[in-house]
Design brief:
By secondary structure, the chain is α/β, with parallel strands linked by helices. It has helices at residues 9-22, 28-40, 47-72, 75-78, 83-100, 107-122, 127-132, 165-178, 226-231, 237-248, 263-271, 314-321, 338-347, 362-375, 382-392, 456-461; strands at residues 138-142, 147-151, 154-157, 189-193, 199-203, 213-217, 253-257, 280-284, 296-300, 328-331, 354-358, 395-401, 407-419, 422-436, 442-448. It is elongated, with a radius of gyration of 28 Å. It binds adenosine-5'-triphosphate and magnesium ion (MG).
């Protein structure tokens, strides 16, 4: 992978003296001076300026060392080396080069440098720190100089950068080639899954105008469970009890929501209510769900390769899944023609199936389903389409990311049948917004709408006798 970056002996030799001049503290005397100067300057004098300069200098040293490392390391052996060995090797080579170039670093800088070099050689460079940071949900790169992260539902600009577009492209290339994909001018965008399970998407120039665009949805080892979501205020205990009854009594559920609103998280949490004895098959573009049950078969669809071959669409997986004796089918996201098989599965004995769709409300979600059916080229009168949807889907759960970054289940709506040409629905729970605090936090509360569940009798028959009080609205405080 690195071979194309490997310098020939001549160029490496030719570069060395110049590099020493470039790097801040050339030969011994200067190096010593730098250390003295560092110590003598009071930290308060110009901390930001000093910090930037220090970062720049470290960046330059790192780059130089990285080049030297690539020249020195046996890259073929690298793949089989243990982490400890590799770290040791990197530390030794870097110490040697630093002393050769008479660069003196304090212990802390040296350790940071070595760990960054390790990340450069084996991992994903500047992205590595962010991938390790558990408070980060999403990483969004807009060209080499701008990396945003999402923490607590809010986007923040980081001070981490790539050296230049080439550096960024090299990291993208490393990620996608590891999963047998390619990204270049003729193939400018790609989806992949990182080794740790994170979802990765990249688009490179010239389609990405100002430098490569990368989005990473970090994989959470400990997925948010129902209790966590209740504690975070995503929904109430009453709503959780209702959802438990809905899942356990095998209602077909669609989780609807905008991008990053918590659809997959909700789907995953809901799945915890499924009985352990059931056979569950999951179908996803990128395997994100982590079901706790013992009997789970996971499928991951895949796009065509560079030659346009080998595609396995979600629909292919779904069709095949129907032959695999599932009790329930969970489709990570329904966005295309697989909608037909999904609805059919829901209608024909695989009740208790679940999926997510991109939509802003339950009504909107139904329209999305109608559109997907139309786009799949199925010529059916609208009324027939709606009747198919209304008999397949029982419940639409709306996930939303509100403007203050909080994620909430803003509505739980039941589909109750057809009235003429229209699908009839009733909202059971909703999030009632009442205002905004001065620091832009949303004030609101969850409430039942006062409508008793259409499925209350079914719940009771299955042993989920919910008290009628959970359907009583809560007055605004
Ligand atoms: N209620 C919540 N409170 C805090 N964080 C949450 C909550 N729900 C989801 N998250 C976090 O928000 C991020 C996005 O969630 P998730 O992947 O479920 O969204 P999504 O709607 O499926 O996104 P996409 O449209 O990209 O598939 C995740 O990192 C998840 O851990
Ligand atoms: Mg998702």
């Amino acid at each position: 992978m690195f071979s194309k970056y490997k310098k020939t002996p001549e160029t490496a030799a030719a570069r060395k003296p110049a590099a020493v001049v470039d790097l801040a503290p050339p030969p011994a005397a200067h190096a010593a001076k730098t250390v003295v100067r560092k110590a003598a300057q009071p930290a308060a004098a110009a901390p930001i300026d000093k910090d930037v300069k220090r970062k720049q200098r470290m960046g330059e040293i790192k780059l130089e060392l990285h080049r030297a490392l690539l020249d020195n390391l046996n890259l073929a052996a690298l793949e089989h080396a243990s982490e400890a060995d590799l770290r040791q090797e990197i530390n030794a080579i870097s110490a040697e080069i630093l002393s050769e170039k008479s660069i003196v670093l304090n212990r802390e800088d040296r350790m940071t440098l070595n760990s960054e070099l390790f990340d450069e050689v084996t991992g994903l460079g500047p992205l590595e720190t962010l991938l390790k940071d558990d408070t980060v949900n999403d990483i969004l790169v807009n060209g080499p100089q701008q990396i945003f992260v999402e923490r607590d539902g809010k986007l923040q600009l980081t001070d981490i950068t790539f050296k230049d577009e080439k550096h960024l492209l090299r990291i993208i290339d490393k990620i996608v080639s590891a999963v047998g994909r390619r990204v270049d001018e003729s193939n400018p965008y790609v989806d992949a899954r990182l080794q740790d399970g994170s979802r990765f998407n990249a688009m490179v120039p010239p389609v990405a105008v100002d430098g490569s665009l990368v989005s990473i949805r970090k994989f959470k080892k400990d997925k948010l469970a129902i209790d966590d979501l209740v504690n975070f205020g995503a929904f109430t205990e009453e709503m959780a009890a209702y959802l438990q009854a809905a899942v356990a009594t095998r209602l077909n559920i669609i989780v609807s929501g905008g991008t990053g609103s918590g659809k997959t998280t909700t789907l995953n949490a809901l799945s915890s209510f499924i009985d352990n004895a059931e056979r569950i098959l999951t179908i996803e573009d990128t395997a994100e769900l982590q079901l706790q049950q013992t009997h789970v078969g996971r499928m991951e669809s895949r796009p065509a390769n560079v030659e346009g071959k080998g595609e396995v669409s979600p629909r292919d997986c779904l069709k095949n899944a129907l032959r695999m004796r599932p009790d329930r089918i969970i489709v990570g996201e329904t966005r295309g023609e697989e909608v037909i098989d999904m609805l059919q599965a829901m209608n024909t004995g695989h009740d208790g199936s679940m999926t997510t769709i991109h939509a802003n409300s339950a009504r909107d979600g139904v329209s999305r389903l109608e559109n997907m059916i139309a786009m799949a080229g199925i010529e059916m009168p609208l009324k027939a389409v709606r009747s198919q949807i209304s008999s397949a889907v029982n419940l639409i759960v709306q996930a939303s990311r509100l403007q203050d970054g909080s994620r909430r289940m803003t509505s739980i709506t039941e589909i109750t049948g057809m009235e003429g040409d229209v699908i009839s629905m009733q909202e059971i729970f909703r999030y009632q917004r009442v205002g905004l605090t001065p620091d832009n936090k949303i004030i609101g509360h969850f409430t039942a709408t006062g409508v008793r569940s259409h499925y209350a009798e079914r719940f009771r028959m299955w042993g989920y006798d919910l008290p009628s009080s959970i359907y009583e609205p809560i007055a605004a405080q």
